[in-house]
Amino acid sequence: MTRYLRLIRIFTGATISAQLEYRANFLGAVLASLGEVGVALLGIAVLFGQPGTVSVGGYSFHQALLVVGFFMLTEGFISVFVQPNMSKIAEAVRTGSMDFTLLKPIDAQFNVSTRNLNVLRVTDILIGLGLIFYAASFLTVTLGGVLAAAVMYLSALVIVYCIWLALSTTAFWFVKTQNMSELFNGVFGAGRFPVTAFPVPVRAFLTFVVPIAFITTVPAQALTGGLSTLLALASPLVAAVLFVGSRLFWKKAVGSYTSASS
Amino acid sequence: MTPFLRKFRVLFSTQFALMTEYRAEIVIWMLSGTLSLVMMLVWMGQAAAAPGGQIRGFSASDFASYFLATWFVGQLLVVWVAWELDFEVRQGTLSPKLLRPMDPMWGHYSGHVAEKIVRFPIMLVLVGLFAWLAEARFSLDWRVYAAVLGLVILGFTVRFLWEYSLGLLAFWTESSTSFQEVVWLVYAALGGLFAPLAFYPQWVQDIAVWTPFPYMLGLPASLIAGKATLEQAGQGMLVLLGWLAVFVLVRVWVWRVGLRKYGAVGA
Predict the structure, then answer these.
(1) What is the DSSP letter of B58?
(2) How far apart are CA B36 and CA B264, in angstroms?
(3) Which of A243, B13, B37, B204 has the largest CB neighbor count within 10 A?
(4) How far is CA A75 from CA A162, A261, B7, B156, in A?
(5) What is the rounded CA–CA span in Å between residue B214 and residue B74?
(6) What whole-number distance in Å separates Cα of residue A180 and Cα of residue A172?
């Protein structure tokens, strides 16, 4: 275990020093973050800007803002920690450099999941946290709520990681998978809004088929104390099932890997 | 046939062959642009919950019609040339294209048009399916669709030219695609991707009428949804023609200044 922690430290140091070579890209990353938060805030602002509208899907303005905060935080988590790693799996399978990863005396899934970071997009995480603190300052938040939200959000991060891992693992058979992440982003865009704002069939789809509801809506509900016990139990359960499932899927994929050109 | 048209035809047929190869990707690119569909679902939920089932005269079915039309028009206005230019300038693959007896812009333009033709039949199927699911109703007047076609061709060309100008900023900066994303946000907001323009505060509408955005996206969508008149379409075309002239000049100017700045990789 300490060996893996030490490896994470080495990986982080290496990837940060590589990125600091391209400092000029920081401006671009900031613009991209602003664009991202702009889309989310405009959507909410126009909805609440209509005369007589006090709630969207039963959410007040500040509660909806909390959902936007969790959305941005998750965007940041994906951009900084998940995507830089997962996008390289397809490339490694295509060129055959996955061989070197599999030969190393550490767990291959650990290696492909922690090797890279995109520190430039840390602005997304800061914006997300800022929005959450701002929105929470207008709401009544208890200590229990904060703890519950932390557990729910931890499950959410596991869910996000597992979905990305599973989608990227398909690269072992299909080779071209960047488009998979495009599709994920398309569906994840629905996470800008509380899931209760959608018509009932779509709500069911976003909860049970693609668990977007657990990623942004459930943590926001937990923070304001409006979370049902059923969802509170379901979120860690979904995370655990997805974690085991994606791990088995990864194992199976690696087992069928035959390197490039063979 | 003039030499220019002959060259353009050859470019177009190669690009068309290329794009039909990418048909599976095109479906996925289409499905990843979901913002107007997400907004549609949220607004439908809002209308259903509102007293009287309407918001500013829009029922759930009206919202479905408007946003599906926005999705349809938005798909026809998709432009990715800024990414291609960014790549070509940084990797130096622009250099051989400069030797050709034709502005490289035409290659990109024909590629975009070819992709739209491949995209169109798939779009019709998807819009039909979504319209059936969401109970949307579209205009049945053929003149509306003639006007929409005119607005979309003008709007697409205007957008292509401004994206091309932004893409050429790659001569100076490595962040040109990020500027592109910020401009996209303005386009999406004032174009009416989040809500019909009438839903915005008055001062935003007053600014928006001077920009090309509402006429290329919101106006054709409103026409299809039966919420705008043909007179408005005529006015919109005139505004777009004005902006077309502006962006033609901007593009030529940025191209001339940028080329002087361009030093190919390895040169």
Answers:
(1) E
(2) 40
(3) B37
(4) 15, 36, 45, 30
(5) 12
(6) 13
Name A29's bridge partners.
none
Whole-structure pTM value: 0.90
Q: Is A25 on the interface with B (CB under 8 A)?
A: yes
**Model pLDDT for residues B29-52, shown as the tens digit of each residue:** 888 788 899 999 999 999 988 888
Q: What is the per-residue pLDDT across A96-115, written as a single tens digit (0 to 9) for each? A: 888 888 888 889 999 889 88
Task: Spell out the domain ranges in chain A.
Answer: 2-255
Give the CA distances from residue A167 to residues A77, A95, A205, B24, in Å, rounded to whole numbers and listed in that order.
17, 19, 18, 17
For chain A positions 51-110, those within 8 Å of chain B (CB to CB) are 52-53, 56-57
Residue type, B34: T
Among A21, A41, A42, the residue to mutate for chain B (most B Cβ within 10 A): A42
Report the alpha-carbon angle A226-A231-A236, nearest 5: 120
pLDDT single digits (tens) B215-246: 999 999 999 999 999 999 999 999 999 999 99
Query: So what's the ipTM on this one?
Result: 0.85
Q: In whole angstroms, what is the distance from residue B217 CA to residue B69 CA? A: 9
Amino acid at A144: G
Cβ <8 Å between A193 and B42: yes
* CA angle centred on A162, ends A159 and A166, rounded to 5°: 140
What are the tokens at A242?
Answer: 């997805």
